[in-house]
């Protein structure tokens, strides 16, 4: 007997340098990231989702799991490897959730927001505004930060072969702006622009901020593998103002969480709720962008969009039981942040 298909709402993940240039992510194919490039940022991005049964670039069977998850409680992970095209003050860049239009706040949302702010005191809450967002300074938001030295100076990078590019189900571009899961098809080697991508499956990112600070001879304010101390340090605006993201560094970053199932948009953070109907038919976005401290027009560096779309899918995939989001208590949140979740 052939496989039986039925229509269902399933997860679609699209990634790009901004909301105008997005391409489908090959979720859980974590050894082969999606490449993004524009005048402000160059990066590799991978997304992992537990029990993924959604949309794939070539309509191939989805990869439901990766060995990365093991027995952990994490339900998703977003990992980036990137470099900036110019130096940026750390007080000007945030990462977090955002929407293009207003969202409806469910009953109990204030409790969830307060809990989120307890976990991350640097969280900037603009969820009730015309263009809602909840973001934090990049180095406060990330679970893991690992910094390496770039091999190629930023002004010696090869030009993208724009005349060879084609918009396909794996590539989206406009002149000067690119998102693709197949850079090698156009003669693009991401290793030249960034560094080798060595992660995937059980090979995972670890905290290492040895090269984070520009004055490498100065006394360090925290140990290179202490992510809790790193977050606490950069919660102080003065410390962000006094440091920059620089073009000669590669920033390897990861954020993950146990409290939202992106396959269903079920969330458990102070309240247990499905947030889909409150989004007013718009995707959930994770963005790295400039914040209100930046005096000029807003700039996006990475835009990751999650939405649920109707699709004919293998009914066997729909029969897989979806895990319940885990509502972390504060002492367990610390374990999750340190990567020791069970």
What does this structure look like?
- The protein has 342 residues and is an alpha+beta fold.
- The protein has seven helices and 19 strands.
- The longest helix is centred in the middle third of the chain and has 11 residues, at 109-119.
- The protein is globular, with a radius of gyration of 19 Å.
- It has helices at 109-119, 138-141, 190-193, 227-234, 237-241, 315-318, 330-337, and strands at 5-16, 23-24, 34-37, 41-49, 76-84, 88-89, 93-98, 124-125, 133-137, 144-149, 171-174, 177-180, 244-245, 249-257, 260-261, 266-268, 272-274, 284-290, 300-314.
- Helix content is 13%, strand content 31%.
- Strand 1 (5-16) and strand 2 form a beta hairpin.
- The strands form four sheets. The protein has a seven-stranded antiparallel beta sheet. It has a seven-stranded antiparallel beta sheet with strand order 10-14-5-4-3-12-11, with no helix packed on it.
Keywords:
globular, 31% strand, alpha+beta, 7-stranded antiparallel beta sheet, 7 helices, 342 residues, disordered C terminus
């Amino acid at each position: 007997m052939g496989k039986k298909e039925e229509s269902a709402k399933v997860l679609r993940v699209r990634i790009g340098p901004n909301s105008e240039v997005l391409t489908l992510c090959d979720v859980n194919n974590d050894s082969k990231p999606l490449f993004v490039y524009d005048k402000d940022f160059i990066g590799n991005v991978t997304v992992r989702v537990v029990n993924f049964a959604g949309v794939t670039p070539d309509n191939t069977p989805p990869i439901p799991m990766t060995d990365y998850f093991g027995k952990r409680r994490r339900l998703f992970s977003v990992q980036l490897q990137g470099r900036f095209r110019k130096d940026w003050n750390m007080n000007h860049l945030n990462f977090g959730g955002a929407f293009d239009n207003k969202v409806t706040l469910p009953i109990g949302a204030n409790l969830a927001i307060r809990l989120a702010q307890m976990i991350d005191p640097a969280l900037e809450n603009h969820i009730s505004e015309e263009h809602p967002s909840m973001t934090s300074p990049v180095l406060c938001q990330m679970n893991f930060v690992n910094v390496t030295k770039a091999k190629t100076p930023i002004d010696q990078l090869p030009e993208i072969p724009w005349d060879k590019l084609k918009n396909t189900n794996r590539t989206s571009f406009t002149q000067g702006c690119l998102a693709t899961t197949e850079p090698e098809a156009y003669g693009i080697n991401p290793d030249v622009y960034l560094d080798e991508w060595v992660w995937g499956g059980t090979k995972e990112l670890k905290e290492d901020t040895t090269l984070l600070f520009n004055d490498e001879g100065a006394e360090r304010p925290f140990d290179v593998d202490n992510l809790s101390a790193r977050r606490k340090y950069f919660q102080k605006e003065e410390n962000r103002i006094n440091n920059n993201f620089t073009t000669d560094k590669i920033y390897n970053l990861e954020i993950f969480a146990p409290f939202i199932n992106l396959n269903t948009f079920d969330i458990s953070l102070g309240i247990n709720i499905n947030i889909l109907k409150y989004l007013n038919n718009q995707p959930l976005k994770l963005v790295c962008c400039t914040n209100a401290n930046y005096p000029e027009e807003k700039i996006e560096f990475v835009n990751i969009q999650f939405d649920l779309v109707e699709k004919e899918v293998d009914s066997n995939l729909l029969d897989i039981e979806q895990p319940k989001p885990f509502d972390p208590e504060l002492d367990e949140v610390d374990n999750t942040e340190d990567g020791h979740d069970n």
